[in-house]
Amino acid sequence: MQLHQIDLVPGQAVQVGNFTVTLVAVEEELVQLHVRDSDNNDFWSDPFVFSDAESHELALA
Hints:
It is a single chain. The C terminus is likely disordered. The protein is 0% helix and 41% strand. Strands 1, 2, 3, 4 and 5 form a 5-stranded antiparallel sheet that branches. By secondary structure, it is an all-beta fold.
C-alpha cells in the first residue's frame, strides 16, 4: 500500500475509491467532511477534532 497526502481547502473534493470526499469546513482543530458514494448516497461527518497531526492540514491516506 502507498500512502498519499492530499491537502484540501474547504469546498475541495477528492475521489477515494468509489467515494467523493469533500472538505466542508475547518475551524481551528475542528474538521467536517461530506462523503458521497457511487450510488449517490450522502454522508456527513459530525465535526471532529483533528489534532494528532503536527499541522492543521487534513491528510487522507
